[in-house]
Amino acid sequence: MSALSPGAERLLAALAAERDAVAAEISERIRAEIPEYAGHAEVEDNTSRHLRAFLDWSDGGEPPELAFERDITAVRVRTGFALLPTLGAYRIGEIALWEWLLRAVERPGAGAALDDVREVAARWFAYGELARNVTIESYLAQDRRRTAAEAADRRDLLDDLVHGRVSGVEAETRLRRLGCAVGRRNYVAVVSLPASPLATAHERTQAVAVRLESSLAAAGGGLRPFVALTHSQVTAVAPGDLGGAAVADAVRAAIGADPGGRVRAGVSLPVAHVGDVRTAYRQALAAADMSTPDRPVTALGALSAFDYLLETGAQDVLQLAPPAVLAELARGDAYAHELVETISVYLQSGMRAREAAEHLHIHTNTIYYRLSRIERLFGIDTRDHSQLLDLLIYVRMFRRLGARTRTGPAPDTDEAP
Q: Do 31 and 137 sit in the same domain of this protein?
């Protein structure tokens, strides 16, 4: 560091003599101008330490390591004190000392000029830049440690919840310690992401976790959900009486576009206590398994009992299907959606063709045509409720299992005139 002019040396000597008073003046301005510092009595001591470190550095010492500032930053991060107000305090300190130097040079017998003020101020601003960098680096390091520790706490809590190792009271205590809300009703949502390289998977899982927490908090009126992540899965416990549909919408927003159709997500039924998360977690996993590229998010509460039984039923049920039915289904599923829709609505309408046609917004003759085609293709009697229900189960199960091998051209799907 270059030697200072005699006038600058005299200004620094005056600052050393008045260090406590200058620190008090700067601290008062910081508390007055930055609300986050109001009531913080330690500001004056910290400012005095910075002035001492600046004076030592200006006296020819080595660049200060500012270990005290790293310790202070650790406390700030631990107590949730933001970085921005701290950087603002540095700026106020720079201006306040500049103004003090301008006043000091005007004193009788100061023995210094404006050039000396500029010389000291330049060194003070350089110190401020160094101190800011130390603070920013410390904030980032401490925040990384805090984030990693919190992520580990979340994973541990999730593991305890899903394995039933924690009581409801203890779970609520740990959730609140993590800053998460506890609702009277809680939903569990699970998002399973496709396998990918470790670095890419972590980044994507982290991004989905952040979006999921944000979207669930917005849907829940600001109540912060519990979100934990692993290598390829994000799990959330959403508090509040949102309803399964609202939770599913929040999950869809978190997933975003998925061109590959490989993301699967499920939403449980509501549970009254966080101690029941174990059951809800299993439900959410089962719902995620039911998801498809066309329906990447499945909410159990949106399924009928019949749909739920079909989705979770054993594939052995297809062994009960007549060979002719399986052979026809194996020809292709281009018309499977039409079959499911027609049979479902026809049964729900009490097997009344006119009412079914009104629900489907088609002509009654089209219903009769479809039913006759079903009879011709599958060899069943469409006047028999049980035969129609069996066929519906076979078609739905066949589609769920993805058995789509083609052994011939798809049947004609032209409608009746």
A: yes
| pLDDT tens digit sequence for 253-285 | 988 865 555 788 999 999 888 888 999 999 999
More confident residue, 403 or 352: 352
**CB-CB neighbours of 339 under 10 Å:** 23
85 within some domain: yes
Q: What percent of the chain has pLDDT over 90?
A: 45
How many C-beta atoms surround the C-beta of residue 136 within 10 A?
Answer: 14
Q: What is the pLDDT of residues 201-222, one digit of tens each?
A: 678 888 889 999 999 998 888 8
CA 65 to chain centre: 37
Q: Which residues pair with 37 in a beta bridge?
A: none
Q: How far apart are CA 370 and CA 401, in angstroms?
A: 25
Cβ atoms of 73 and 139 closer than 8 Å: yes
Count of structural domains within the chain: 3
Q: Is 153 helix (H, G, I), strand (E, B) or coil?
A: helix
One domain, residues 266 and 199: yes
Same-domain status, 125 and 29: yes
Distance of CA 129 to CAs 28, 89, 93, Å? 22, 12, 12
Is 0.85 topped by the overall pTM? no
For residue 415, the model assigns a pLDDT of 44
Q: The domain containing residue 134 runs over which residues?
A: 6-145
The residues pairing with 382 across neighbouring beta strands, listed in sequence order, are: none
Tell me the pLDDT of the chain averaged across its residues.
Answer: 85
15 Cβ contact partners less than 8 Å away, ≥ 6 residues apart: 22, 51, 55, 97, 100, 104, 120
**Tokens representing 268?**
């449980």
Q: What is the dihedral of CA 155, 156, 158, 163, to 10 degrees?
A: 140
List strand residue ranges (DSSP E) for 129-199, in order: 186-192
Looking at the fold, whether 23 and 107 belong to one and the same domain comes out as yes
pLDDT for 403 beyond 60: no
Q: Is residue 19 a part of any domain in this protein?
A: yes
Return the structure tokens found at 375.
């009879």
In-domain check, residue 308: no
Say if CB 8 and CB 112 are below 8 A apart.
yes
Same domain, 140 and 42: yes
pLDDT one-digit tens code per residue, 28-86: 999 999 999 988 888 999 999 999 999 999 887 777 788 999 899 888 888 888 999 99
In a domain, 154, yes or no: no
